[in-house]
Specification:
Layout (H helix, E strand, L loop, with lengths): L11 H6 L9 H4 L6 H55 L4 H13 L11 H13 L3 E5 L5 H7 L4 E6 L2 H10 L4 E4 L9 H10 L34 E4 L13 H12 L10 E7 L4 H10 L5 E5 L2 E7 L24
Helix pairs in contact: 4-5, 9-10
Length: about 350
């Protein structure tokens, strides 16, 4: 075998060195040591491109930081506004001049066409409680004062209950956002004595003072309102309905019984006492007077203004003495024959 076959082929470098001495030295760098264009281009133009790239990057970062700063400032400003509003409304539920003006005009309007309307002193008695703070207010009956109660408790929760579905729908139509429900009352004014006798017979069973009205079987209990109504701890309850001025009218015995149970069934986290202000209008009538004595109790009567009775009822685990509603016998209780 020839000795040439025992060696590797000559490299390009060695070939270039064996060229004729007359070849210029520059020729061996053009082809033999030439780098790819991708590597030589940065070598020639690299410093300028690098400066431009660095400048572009700095400008981009600056623009991004400025945009982010503006966005964050706007977001903080937007979210800060509503957080300060509730703090102000808690201290001042309704501006005092507005509160006083509403109460003034409601009390000075002549009531000759509707004698069942509340007088100025009666309105003031309720307004004094509502003025203290926004609260959970439950009102039985749609009356001339309906919009007044809603306005005075504008930052609280106000719910109306009435026997007339048509009046409820009209109220909601003209006042969007107002909360009102219709109820079918099963009692009658003429059944007062029979109803009191029945409630006493069931005082430790269906008609007990502390219970969940949603599941109550007591004939005097209002148990067909929306479920969430029974979950609310009502601070103030006004009984000014349903109708009760003729024998076949439903009367307000069910509303008074329901108010008494709601007040006593409130549960405070960690225990302790909770009070409910209950106002009964036209307490001079028999059903209202007897029902209040039976289920709200004379020992809880704070004041009587005109024909408005004001009771403050505390929550309880078992009701009054002996498991009943009252510690003392009702002062005007109906005599029930055995």
């Amino acid at each position: 075998m020839s000795p040439l076959h025992s060696h590797s082929p000559p490299s390009l470098s060695s070939l270039s060195l064996s060229t004729s001495p007359t070849m210029k030295p520059t020729t061996k760098f053009i082809f033999l040591h030439h780098k790819p264009p991708t590597t030589t281009t940065p070598t020639v133009t690299g410093p300028h491109s690098h400066h431009r790239l660095l400048l572009f990057t700095l400008l981009s970062l600056f623009s991004f930081a400025l945009t982010l700063s503006l966005f964050t400032t706007q977001t903080t400003t937007t979210t800060a506004t509503p957080t300060t509003t509730p703090t102000a409304t808690v201290k001042h539920p309704l501006p005092t001049p507005v509160f006083n003006a509403l109460l003034h005009y409601a009390g000075t309007t002549p009531n000759s066409t509707n004698p069942s309307r509340m007088s100025a002193p009666e309105l003031t008695s309720i307004a004094t409680v509502l003025r203290r703070r926004s609260c959970n207010l439950l009102v039985f009956g749609l009356t001339h004062e309906t919009l007044l109660w809603h306005a005075l408790n504008i930052n609280g929760r106000t719910t109306f209950v009435d026997e007339n579905p048509y009046f409820i729908s009209k109220l909601e139509e003209k006042n969007p956002g107002i909360e009102a429900y219709d109820v079918q009352f099963t009692t009658k004014v003429s059944d007062l004595h029979k109803s009191i006798k029945y409630s006493r017979s069931e005082i430790n069973n269906e008609c007990k003072p502390v219970q969940n009205l949603l599941f109550s079987e007591c004939k005097l209990a209002i148990n067909d309102l929306p479920n969430h109504v029974y979950d609310v701890d009502w601070d103030v309850i006004i009984v000014d309905g349903p109708r009760g001025y003729f024998p076949k009218a439903p009367g307000r015995l069910s509303a008074i019984f329901t108010a008494g149970v709601m007040a006593r069934s409130k549960k405070k986290t960690g225990g302790g006492k909770m009070q409910t202000h209950v106002f009964v209008h036209e307490i001079d009538r028999e059903v209202e007077r007897v029902g209040s004595d039976e289920f709200l109790c004379s020992e809880n009567l704070v004041e009587t203004v005109g024909v408005l009775g004001h009771f403050v009822v505390e929550n309880s685990d078992s009701g009054g003495g002996g498991g009943g509603f009252c510690r003392n016998p009702p002062s005007s209780a109906v005599l029930v024959s055995e």
